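Take our chain:
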Amino acid sequence: MSKLQGFRGAILLVDRATGEAIAFTVWDSERDLEASSSQAGPVRATAAEAMGASDPQVESYEVAFAELPAPVGT
């Protein structure tokens, strides 16, 4: 994904107790997001399969606020 035009980052949130997960990607613009769709689809499918996702869903949202002054440690 990082090689696609306009890609800015990705975040994966996991609830280890339930096994549920939510993945986010951040793009420079809605146009970049839409343009990445055909290339991101296979990447998304591979990731979903690797994680054992049974019914992954894709939704789009506008970022209304973000503050990430430094990378989050692992």
